[in-house]
Write a structure and sequence with these properties.
heterodimer, A: 201 residues, mainly beta, globular, B: 257 residues, Protocatechuate 3,4-Dioxygenase, subunit A, five-stranded mixed sheet, four-stranded antiparallel sheet, 4 helices, binds fe (iii) ion, Protocatechuate 3,4-dioxygenase, beta subunit (chain B), Intradiol_dOase_core (chain B)
Amino acid sequence: MTETGTGRAEPVLPTPSHTVGPFYGHALPFPGGGDIAPLGHPDTITLRGRVLDGAGEPLPDAFLELWGAGPDGEVARIDGSMRRDPASGGFLGRDGVEFTGWGRVQTDAGGHWSARTLRPGARGRCAPYLSVCVFARGLMKHLFTRIYLPDHPAALAADPLLARVAEDRRATLIAADRGRGAYGFDIRLQGEGETVFLEYQ
Amino acid sequence: MTLTQQDIDREIAAERAAYAERRAGGAPVEHHPRRDYAPYRSSALRHPVQPLVAIDVGEDPELVELRSPAFGERDLAAGDDDLTRQHAGEPIGERITVEGRLLDRAGRPVRGQLIEIWQANSAGRYAHRRERHDAPLDPNFSGVGRALTDGGGRYRFTTVRPGPYPWRQHVNAWRPAHIHFSLFGAAFTQRLVTQMYFPGDPLFPHDPILQSVTDDAARRRLVAAYDHSLSVPEFSMGYRWDIVLDGPHATWAGEGR
Ligand SMILES: [Fe+3]
């Protein structure tokens, strides 16, 4: 057991997850949530996709969180993703210079989301990827997946997770190259072409 | 065909019986809801049917998911933790103080992390454009709060007690009063969004969202405790709610668990 300042920590049972419901929109999304890349950075990539349900219908009430390393493979430890204006309490947006690595984007009425971030570098034994956490009304517990970039086939072939995923489902984890640093990545919660979702142990 | 509360109550009972049977057959305690929970209709087309792929974080301590995004004072504005003082006037309702600790499964405090909350006003109405419940809006209440946990993992919000609200899934469907919480831990794997309830609410047995947590002990962990010592004299009633994040983090991987 780990000693804490105030006494001995005891193992405890987890608080159950619950759906975000339909009304998080005035609380969680923030202006510039998907503008993760510092302005004018040469390693900027653009991501765009849709979130779809088991009937192939787009979700207008989902949001994603993206979390990735910088181009050098280092993980940012910088706050300021949702900088606030001390005078008005409103959102200032990111400072355009620092890279926090984290962003939050809502789907629009057509189920589309988009974000600009930096091309992640490789870490550990994995090919470069962005970690994604999906939330939606109707989803009792968030879902994790990964966006791998298609640019380095050799690195993808050596990735320990991709190696374990059935070949016919592997493509759901790899973004489509749309050229000039743009990538497409749809998330299908259920059914035909269902995205591979992950759990960490 | 009109879906009634009785129909939903029967489905909830069937899910409870199915869980009891799984437990009797030696299945593990389910601390979280199943993503496929029929009494909550919106889950039907929004849960994966393929099994999740498990990642053993002990095999690669460098995973980005074992780190967490950082938040700091720049991400907050003064008064974010006091929802009763975000407008020119006072919101209507019973003022409450909600305090607790953010912990990991080992019982260790999660320090300096972001907690976001959102809730309906005291009449049960959200300040959201898509909200269709015709209870009155309160011009002095947005129902949105943020705080960073302190050195002991503690957080504290001042707000008004939210009202219950109808939500149209079935005839006479009412959500028990609740506050939505969004939490970050020491690793992205510990991310949690959940809801805090108030003790003794008669709507508990009828709400498919709360009942989606079929384990009795786990469900009780979503209910705050009335704590008289947290009441602020002549101002607010006090509730205590500790939150425990699930999921591995970097220290676990480092310890080679
Ligand atoms: Fe709600």
